[in-house]
Design goal:
single chain
């Protein structure tokens, strides 16, 4: 007969898996910042491939464990929502990386690094928020982290205005403007995915407080 400690110990493993998933998202964001900051792309693209493989494996493992585990540390629907939201961060980052690697020569004078830095900072906050789940679902620290995510999202939105003005008003190359716009919007989408994770964590804390 299983003890309660054994049963809940099995449920607790989801904290670790979600934390690993958040770490993989952060690593993807760091690799992205390196990608837009370096001229040599090949080593960084290899890092993306490794990070995505790791994230896919973690997402699949979480889904499998949900089927096989009787008692979970959090509600199953909350774990599923977090698993899906975390998975979308490196997935969106990978889309940017693949497209940037193709068109970066055409956009060599556009500096994406300030926006990728905001994204990286957002994934660090996400990692901290996921870490808070096993610390007792405390409202105050999670609310502060949620506020930080919202501030970073607003900063990312604000930073889009200047390059859009330059591309559409001061430049006659329509194709170049569209390529840049696509990449800027992917960065914005990745930051939004971080916000989505934060919203889920905050709702979990509120529900269980």
């Amino acid at each position: 007969m299983f003890s309660l400690q054994t049963i809940f110990g099995k449920g607790d493993k989801f904290y670790g898996l979600l934390e690993q998933s958040a770490e993989a998202a952060r690593d993807s964001a760091r690799a992205l910042h390196d990608l837009v900051s370096r001229k040599e792309h090949a080593p960084v693209m290899a890092a993306f491939a490794a990070s995505r493989a790791r994230e896919k494996a973690l997402a699949a493992q979480i889904s499998e464990e949900l089927v096989n585990t009787f008692v979970t540390a959090l509600d199953r629907e909350d774990i599923e929502a977090l698993n899906s939201a975390l998975y979308k961060i490196p997935k969106t980052i990978e889309k940017f990386a693949e497209r940037y690697d193709i068109v970066s020569v055409r956009l060599s004078d556009i500096d994406f690094s300030p926006r990728t830095m905001v994204l990286e900072r957002s994934t660090v906050v996400v990692q901290e928020m996921i870490g808070e789940l096993r610390r007792g679902l405390r409202i105050d620290p999670v609310k502060k982290l949620q506020d930080s995510l919202q501030t970073l999202e607003a900063e990312g939105d604000r930073m889009l205005l200047a390059p859009y003005r330059t591309l559409y008003v001061e430049n006659n190359d329509a194709m170049r403007a569209m390529l840049a716009k696509d990449l800027f919007e992917l960065l914005e989408k990745a930051i939004d995915k971080c916000r989505d994770v934060g919203n889920i964590v905050y709702s979990i804390v509120l529900k269980n407080s």
